[in-house]
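job 3f2a | input accepted
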Amino acid sequence: MRRARWRSVKVTPPEILAARVRARRGDASDADVAVLERQLAAGTGAVTWQALDASGAPDAVLAAARSTLSDRAAAYGMPGVTVDGNDVWAVYQAAQRAVARARSGSRRMSSFPGIMT
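job 3f2a | predicted structure (117 res):
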């Protein structure tokens, strides 16, 4: 299997992000423009997208994807967890932990749950 490579991604301008947040109605997110402004002020560093070669055996591709997600979270100094996306209870628990960490205010992006289906 080929090694994954990183590509740059286009970043949406802050004024467009703010307009989208202001336009939310009945959205599941409780983030407002103040949250967005704090996140933007904190910065993200380089934002990249990793290409994953999916031409190998399914088990090898799955292992590579799981490894990639965990590595990606660690690179940003946050916990990364991989969850079976077909296990509703596991997804719920991972989401609850991620939301609790995010709402604690200790980090701008405090977890990265990888939901594998």
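job 3f2a | The first strand starts at residue 5 and ends at 8.
job 3f2a | closed
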